[in-house]
């Protein structure tokens, strides 16, 4: 069942009912200021850090789930409603939500009044703009009242939910003209405030939540709206909100627009005040002046559209498959950018409070957006590297506001360092910029203790070789990529974190996954060494990589597939010897991606075992059989019910590793079949089963052992976005940046005839026609650049900034 449709020309997903199976959301903002908005106008807004600079409140685990947002109420002669349907839930005569790239537009109608609510964050501004267009669609004059509503958070979202005894005495606002200023704690250590304005004279306001909503009412029936009159309340100590009241009279066919701006201002310490306890409003007024007219709003929207057109132009495909086109050209790269901005911090499944930016996560996210904004990729790499320790280990997370490591989560995830090599290599391949390797980068964010980025990469590589277990495989530490495989935890305390509790001492538990990742990433490190003239270091690295490859085949292969790990006792995990959890997806993917076992047929066995034991109609499950009880030696993975999350759920993040692995073996049909099983556009027709948005990937889908097989969770912020983008654009469609140029190596379904890709690379634009007259899956028979034959399949950068024609014939 569908609940909407793709509008490819406008790059929008159009939702035609407010009653989607779950709130279907969009993200606003591309730089420092961000908002989440659902198809019923729920969500929240923050500046840089969803925990430390939360502007508006959002209540998780609420009933109804998606309650709280930037709402607008229409009062029509005793009847009142909201254009997003929620929270009032009055029947609407019509409804449509259009989620676009960085904006959302909701249009609805009731009783002869049509309202369009447009929300976006203009480029270069720390403000969210909402334009309300109210139209009289009837034949008689109408007089209605418009009420806005935003509930301010007390800046720190964690403190906001816990420290009531303080926070219920600190709320402060100022109201001047048509602007409500939220200045809680500004009198002391803060130099920042929020404002909420409208570009018309107002007929009333409310800033006290109790006065507006009522002590015993909810947002579905706020007493000020129900009465049709604002109370002009001024919050003092209690919960501050922002609500404007406007009286509107419309002739038949007439429409009026109202531009609301919700913004964030920081003042220099010596410019905080206009007068005693009166905040300096000049910066806020300057922002409002830039969005005072429809023409200004339209211009900002045009700038936003141009921004996204430019980003998306870096890689475009023309094929006969609409779902493939819209995923590659629009929605997958869009999600990659949103995930880059947010990491895993702020969604409808992450509160933005407990997590910062992930070290491993952010490096993987780089893979999906580095071709779009390499300059921001460079900044992110340096930020990540600065949270590394001298021994090569790293904080697992850091806070985006402070850019310092998150002590609450700490370190000890032993795959983390290798991802820094992969992310840096991806940046250099895309840009050719090796100067990044000479950047001085702190250890543990200490500016007095720095080394070159290359030295950080060297210590990342050596962190593996310095931490090997009894079989010569890498020690797992707290966990590897699978944070829930906790082999050194042994937790018996309810509610204790599996990732942060004190691990038992012991250097026994080993990860076959990290071994595969080491062999996969290692050649990039060796090549970077050669580029710096360090041939001896490169040769030593290659020897260690080759040794790890042999050790993995000797001690990490179980006859038909790769083992997952060895536990604290030295016993196998992911083996035929196990009663449960006999085979895992992660090592089959990463080890074959690394080329381990390709020559002797072990890789083919491993992928065949994946298809036999792990494949389902909705994707590949993480392991089989699922764990039916809690295993003290395995940790969190065995706490989930069978079929959910890491206990045999379809963890979409690692499905693309199997896609890529299949392309290593030349299996294009199989690779694309896996791709289609989890790519959201292909799931639009089963939205009642899948439930999450049909335009973005989810982290997981319930596996075959679950009660609700096929039901997705944790949409938007997931490494699934980047890895699926890499799998389809680089491994299946086969256009990938390399150190020496643009590599062309498709691995496609044999029945495909042709397709065309436009790829911007190092300032040049390559229009690549790929023809498949012999109907093969893999192999470049001929390649020409502007009519001239090219030896091999790597196009060296031309460097003239022009458009170049590439013709590729497979065979």
TrEMBL record:
Gene3D superfamilies: 1.50.10.10, Glycoside hydrolase, family 65, N-terminal domain, Maltose phosphorylase, domain 3, mpn423 like domain. Pfam families: GH94_b-supersand, Glyco_hydro_94. Keywords: Glycosyltransferase, Transferase. GO terms for molecular function: carbohydrate binding; glycosyltransferase activity. Residues 307-734 form the Glycosyl hydrolase 94 catalytic domain. It comes from Paenibacillus albidus. One of its GO terms (biological process) is carbohydrate metabolic process. Residues 11-270 form the Glycosyl hydrolase 94 supersandwich domain. This is Glycosyl transferase. InterPro entries: 6-hairpin_glycosidase_sf (IPR008928), 6hp_glycosidase-like_sf (IPR012341), Gal_mutarotase_sf_dom (IPR011013), GH65_N (IPR037018), GH94_catalytic (IPR033432), GH94_Enzymes (IPR052047), GH94N_CBP (IPR037825), Glyco_hydrolase_94_b-supersand (IPR010383). SMART domains: CBM_X. PANTHER family: CELLOBIONIC ACID PHOSPHORYLASE, CELLOBIONIC ACID PHOSPHORYLASE-RELATED.
């Amino acid at each position: 069942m569908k609940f909407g449709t793709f509008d490819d020309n406008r790059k929008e997903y159009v939702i035609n009912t407010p009653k989607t199976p779950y709130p279907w959301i969009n993200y606003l903002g591309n730089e420092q200021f961000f908002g989440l908005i659902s198809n019923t106008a729920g969500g929240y807004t923050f500046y840089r850090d969803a925990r430390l600079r939360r502007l508006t409140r959002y209540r998780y685990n609420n009933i109804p789930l998606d309650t709280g947002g930037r709402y607008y109420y229409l009062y029509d002669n005793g009847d009142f409603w909201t254009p997003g349907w929620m929270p009032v839930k009055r029947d609407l005569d019509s409804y449509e939500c259009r989620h676009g790239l960085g904006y959302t537009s909701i249009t609805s109608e009731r009783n002869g009044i049509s309202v369009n609510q447009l929300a976006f964050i203009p480029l270069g501004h720390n403000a969210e703009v909402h334009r309300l267009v109210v139209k009289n669609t009837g034949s008689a004059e109408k007089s209605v009242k418009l009420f806005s509503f935003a509930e301010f958070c007390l800046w720190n979202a964690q403190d906001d939910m816990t420290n009531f005894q303080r926070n219920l005495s600190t709320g402060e606002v100022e109201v001047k003209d048509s602007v409500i200023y939220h200045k809680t704690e500004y009198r002391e250590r803060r130099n920042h405030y929020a404002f909420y304005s409208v570009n018309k004279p107002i007929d009333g306001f409310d800033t006290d939540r109790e006065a507006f909503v009522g002590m015993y009412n909810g947002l579905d029936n706020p007493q000020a709206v129900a009465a049709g009159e604002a109370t002009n309340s001024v919050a003092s100590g209690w919960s501050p909100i922002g609500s404007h009241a406007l009286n509107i009279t419309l002739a038949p066919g007439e429409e009026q627009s109202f531009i609301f701006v919700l913004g964030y201002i920081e003042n220099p310490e010596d410019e905080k005040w206009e007068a005693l306890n009166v905040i300096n409003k000049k910066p806020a007024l300057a922002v409002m002046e830039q969005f005072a007219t429809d023409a200004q709003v339209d211009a900002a929207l045009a700038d936003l559209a141009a921004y996204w057109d430019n980003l998306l132009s870096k890689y475009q495909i023309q094929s006969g498959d609409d779902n493939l086109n819209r995923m590659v050209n629009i929605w997958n790269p869009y999600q990659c950018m949103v995930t880059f901005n947010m990491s895993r911090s702020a969604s409808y499944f992450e509160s933005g409070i407990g997590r910062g930016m992930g070290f491993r996560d952010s490096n993987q996210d780089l893979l999906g957006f580095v071709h779009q904004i390499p300059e921001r990729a460079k900044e992110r790499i340096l930020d990540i590297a600065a949270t590394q320790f001298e021994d090569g280990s790293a904080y697992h997370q850091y806070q985006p506001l402070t850019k310092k490591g998150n002590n609450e989560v700490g370190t000890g995830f032993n795959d983390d360092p290798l991802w820094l090599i992969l992310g840096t290599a991806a940046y250099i391949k895309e840009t050719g910029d090796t100067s990044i390797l000479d950047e001085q980068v702190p250890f543990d964010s200490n500016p007095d203790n720095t080394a070159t980025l290359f030295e950080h990469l060297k210590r990342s590589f050596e962190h593996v070789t310095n931490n090997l277990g009894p079989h010569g495989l890498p020690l797992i530490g707290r966990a590897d990529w699978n944070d829930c495989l906790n082999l050194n935890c042994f937790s018996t305390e309810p509610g204790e974190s599996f990732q942060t509790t004190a691990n038992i001492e012991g250097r026994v538990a080993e990860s076959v996954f990290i071994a595969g990742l080491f062999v996969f990433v290692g050649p990039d490190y060796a090549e970077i060494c050669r580029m710096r003239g360090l041939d001896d270091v490169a040769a030593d690295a290659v020897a260690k990589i080759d040794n790890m490859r042999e050790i993995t085949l000797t001690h990490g292969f179980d006859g038909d597939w790769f083992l997952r790990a060895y536990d604290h006792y030295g016993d196998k995990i992911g083996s035929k010897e196990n009663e449960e959890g006999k085979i895992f997806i992660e090592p089959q993917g990463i080890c074959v991606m690394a080329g381990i076992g390709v020559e002797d047929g072990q890789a083919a066995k491993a992928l065949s075992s994946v298809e036999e034991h792990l494949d389902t109609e909705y994707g590949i499950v993480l392991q089989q059989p699922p764990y039916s009880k809690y295993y003290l030696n395995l940790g969190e993975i065995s706490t989930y019910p069978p079929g959910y999350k890491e206990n045999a759920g379809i963890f979409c993040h690692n499905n693309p590793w199997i896609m890529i692995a299949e392309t290593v073996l030349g299996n294009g049909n199989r690779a694309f079949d896996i791709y289609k099983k989890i790519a959201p556009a292909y799931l639009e027709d089963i939205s009642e089963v899948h439930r999450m948005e049909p335009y973005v990937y989810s982290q997981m889908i319930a596996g075959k052992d679950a009660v609700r097989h096929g039901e997705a969770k944790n949409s938007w912020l997931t490494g699934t976005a980047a890895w699926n983008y890499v799998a389809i654009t680089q491994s299946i469609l086969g256009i990938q940046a390399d150190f020496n140029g643009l590599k062309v190596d498709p691995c496609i379904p044999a029945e495909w005839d042709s397709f065309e890709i436009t790829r911007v690379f190092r300032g040049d634009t390559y229009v690549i026609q790929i023809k498949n007259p012999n109907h093969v899956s893999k192999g470049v028979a001929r390649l020409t650049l502007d009519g001239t034959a090219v030896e091999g399949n790597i196009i060296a950068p031309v460097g003239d900034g022009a458009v170049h024609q590439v013709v590729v014939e497979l065979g």
